[in-house]
Amino acid sequence: MGLHSATWRIHASAVDDLNLLEESLRWLTGDDCNLTVGKDKSWHGSEQTVLEATTKRKKAALKALARLGDEVLEGLLDEGVSRRIDDEKVMHVRIKLSNLARGEIVLISEDDTVSVAKGQFKIESYPGSEPSDVITETILSMLNS
User: Fold this and answer.
1) Disulfide: which of 35, 38, 68, 122 matches 72 by Cβ 3.0-4.6 Å?
2) Helix (H, G, I), strand (E, B), or coil: what is residue 122?
3) What is the tens place of the pLDDT at every residue in 42-100?
4) How far apart are CA 117 and CA 25, in angstroms?
5) Taken in order 34, 37, 38, 44, is the CA torsion positive or negative?
6) To 10 degrees, the CA torsion angle through 56, 59, 62, 63?
7) Distances from the Cα of 115 to the Cαs of 6, 33, 78, 101, 126, in angstroms?
């Protein structure tokens, strides 16, 4: 067991460097990702670009999670992954966009009001197993290898 898929999403404004953000998403998700770029309006009504990198392959999704690095993965375990998992068995992760553009990964806390890249990891969990246990075991195996 492990992951079914991984998705990273960025909402960019008109002044953001889209090429840099695309490169950052490709680096974060891996070469085996499908990158889409779309236009939308923000909650306030201004134009924004939505960049989304998705991989539906299990091995690529695991590599995308591992790319967060040992420090971030340990941080996820320390704070408890169960609070990041929704009813659809998806773990949500948010990282600072300014750090991602520099090739660094920094988790944000709930009270941060910074630009973020939003990650969603679909957990491969079946009846009789808890998604939080599955993702914890997956992360621990990454840390131990």
Assistant:
1) 68
2) strand
3) 666 678 899 999 999 999 999 999 999 999 999 999 999 999 999 999 999 999 998 99
4) 9
5) positive
6) -110
7) 20, 22, 24, 11, 34
CB 81 within 8 A of CB 101: no
Q: State how far the Cα of 58 lies from the Cα of 72, in Å rounded to an integer.
A: 20
Spatial distance between the Cα atoms of 62 and 26, rounded to a whole number of angstroms: 15
Q: Could you write out the DSSP letters of every residue in 32-87?
A: S-EEEEEEEE-TTS-EEEEEEEEE--HHHHHHHHHTT-HHHHHHHHHH-GGGGB-T
Instruction: Give the H/E segment covering residue 20.
Output: helix 18-29
